[in-house]
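sry for the spam today, last one i promise. C-alpha cells for design, 287 residues
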C-alpha cells in the first residue's frame, strides 16, 4: 500500500497566516503540520508517499521535507495541483504513483495519534473511511445512518447545514485502485470541485464502503479554533503544562472605571504655565 498526503489549497480560513506560506507548513506545537499526517502513515507501515500540493508556496515544502528520510519515509515524491479542483481531483493526480496498488489517503491538516496499522494490514479492497465524533460536523462530510441499523451508512452529505449525526468523515481514507476510475467519472459539484464525498458514495452504492471510528485524538487544523485545539493537545501530550498566570505583589490587578454619574465639576484645569511650573518643581524634588 502507498500513501498520499493532500496538502494543496490556499488556506483562506487561516488568512493572514497563509499569506506567507502553505497552511500545512504552519507549526503545530513543535513541528510543521505536514509532519503529523506523514508520521501517521509511517507508523502504519507505509513508507512510499506522495505529497500533493499547490498554490504559490508549493516550493516551501522541499527544504522542510527534503527526501523524507528523517521522517522514516523510504521513497517520497511530490506533485502539483494547478487548480482548486477539490480533494478528489488532487487524488486523481496520484494514479501513476499508485501504479495499481491500494492507497491510504490523508489530508495534510489532519493530526491524530491513532494507530491505523490494523486497518491498513487488514484491508481487502473497496473503501474504508474513518469517522470521528466532533462538535462541528457541519464543517465536514457527514454520514447519515440507517435508523433501523445504526452501523449502516445510507449516504454521506458534504458539509450539511443540519447534520444528521455527530460524526465527521475524517480526512483519512483507504481505497483500492478502482478509486481512480470513479474519479474519472465524477462531475464538478456546485462548488466547482470534484468531491471526495462523491467518491465515497460511489463505493457505498456498490456495497463496498466500510467504516471504523477512529481511536484516539483526531483534529484537523484548518481553522484558527481547530489549529489551537491541535496545538494544545500535542503540547500537553509532549509534557507542556500551562503555567499559572503571573501576579505582581500577590494581589489581583486593580481595576478602575468611570461611572456614568461622574462629572467634571471637580477637575482642575491647568494652564500651560502651571504645567511647566509643576514639571520644574518635580525635577528639583528628584535631583
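last one done:
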Amino acid at each position: 500500500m502507498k500513501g498520499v498526503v493532500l496538502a494543496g489549497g490556499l488556506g483562506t480560513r487561516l488568512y493572514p497566516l497563509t499569506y506567507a506560506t502553505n497552511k500545512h507548513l504552519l507549526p503545530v506545537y513543535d513541528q510543521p503540520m505536514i509532519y503529523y499526517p506523514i508520521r501517521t502513515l509511517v507508523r502504519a507501515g507505509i513508507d512510499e508517499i506522495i505529497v500533493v500540493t499547490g498554490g504559490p508556496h508549493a516550493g516551501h515544502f522541499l527544504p522542510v521535507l527534503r527526501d523524507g528520510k528523517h521522517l522514516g519515509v523510504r521513497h517520497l515524491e511530490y506533485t502539483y495541483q494547478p487548480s482548486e479542483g477539490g480533494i478528489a481531483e488532487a487524488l486523481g493526480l496520484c494514479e501513476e504513483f499508485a501504479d495499481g496498488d491500494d492507497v491510504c489517503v490523508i489530508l495534510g491538516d489532519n493530526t491524530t495519534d491513532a494507530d491505523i496499522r490494523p486497518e491498513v494490514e487488514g484491508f481487502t479492497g473497496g473503501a474504508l473511511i474513518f469517522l470521528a465524533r466532533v462538535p462541528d460536523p457541519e464543517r465536514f462530510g457527514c454520514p447519515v445512518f440507517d435508523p433501523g441499523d445504526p452501523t449502516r451508512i445510507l449516504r454521506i452529505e458534504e458539509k450539511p447545514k443540519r447534520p444528521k449525526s455527530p460524526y465527521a468523515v475524517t480526512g483519512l481514507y483507504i481505497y483500492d485502485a478502482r478509486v481512480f476510475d470513479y474519479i474519472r467519472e465524477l462531475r464538478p459539484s456546485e462548488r466547482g470541485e470534484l468531491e471526495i464525498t462523491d467518491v465515497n458514495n460511489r463505493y457505498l452504492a456498490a456495497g463496498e464502503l466500510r467504516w471504523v471510528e477512529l481511536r484516539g485524538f483526531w483534529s484537523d487544523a484548518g481553522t484558527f479554533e481547530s489549529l489551537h485545539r491541535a496545538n494544545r493537545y500535542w503540547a500537553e501530550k509532549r509534557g507542556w503544562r500551562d503555567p499559572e498566570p503571573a501576579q505582581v505583589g500577590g494581589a489581583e490587578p486593580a481595576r478602575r472605571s468611570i461611572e456614568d454619574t461622574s462629572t467634571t465639576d471637580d477637575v482642575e484645569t491647568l494652564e500651560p504655565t502651571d504645567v511647566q511650573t509643576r514639571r520644574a518643581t518635580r525635577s528639583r524634588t528628584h535631583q
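The chain has nine helices and 13 strands. ok im logging off now
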